[in-house]
Amino acid sequence: MGKAVITEVTRMYSSNICVGAFHLELKKIIRPLPSLEKNWKKIDYYNKTFYVGNIISCDDYKKTDLITKKNPHDYEDWRQDKPRKIGTYSQKELFELLEKHCDKSIKSIFNTKIKYNQYFDSEKPLRSLGSIISKSKNLLFDRKESNKQLRLKIRDIDNEIYDFPVTSLFLLERFDEYKFSIKDMNREFIKGKNKLIIRIGLARDFSGSGDIKFSLPRNYIQVNGLIGI
Q1: 194: domain range?
Q2: For the segment 155-185, what is each residue's pLDDT rounded down to a tens digit?
């Protein structure tokens, strides 16, 4: 039995959430998943089990038949029984813990060509989770006008420019439910910070929707969360 600290909680379809955590003994990012279900539920967030910064109990790794094919997510997927909260890190403590385990750049997380700086298809990366450190001046929230989607623009250390959808449940709740404006989002979560860790994730296979179908499933890059000081 080990311990892990929650690093990100992302909103999925319906009432599901996805959780990322840093395993404190193994010093690696994992994706805790239920043993007998595909995903955790939002109720597990609202009952404060899966808040960013929470320290949770972490079972020994369980490989199950729910993982049926090799994909980037296999590298971090970690099947276990429902954890319990056993402590909390402050945002400053969490930043200091994760800072030395961040990647140099977004490219270095995935170590393979990113198509149009957005997704992968034929050449899949090994990992699906990572993080970079950025100064606040290199980040900006924006909104996609076609569907009002919250996005984060990033100027990386290698001067590559990215524009990724935000999937952080915490940030999306502020934007969608508390009706924060883009100006509010930038002031509250970026401009007031000196440095931020950007939690980066990879969506699972997406083959298109409606009349638009892709010849190969795509894995889109997304922003799973921000941890700032």
Answers
A1: 2-228
A2: 999 999 999 999 999 999 999 888 899 999 9
Residues in the chain, pLDDT under 70: 61-70
> From start to end of the chain, where are the E strands?
2-11, 16-23, 28-34, 40-41, 54-58, 77-80, 85-88, 119-120, 129-135, 139-144, 149-155, 161-165, 195-202, 206-209, 212-228
Query: What is the rounded CA–CA span in Å between residue 121 and residue 217?
Result: 6
> Contact at 8 Å (CB) between 132 and 116?
no
**What is the domain count for the chain?**
1
pTM comes to 0.92
Q: Say how far apart CA 88 and CA 63 lie, in whole Å.
A: 28
**pLDDT tens for residues 11-39?**
998 899 999 999 999 999 999 999 888 89
Distance CA 223, CA 160 (A): 16
Coil, helix or strand at residue 170: helix
200 in Cβ contact with 223 (< 8 Å): yes
Structure tokens belonging to residue 92:
């400053």
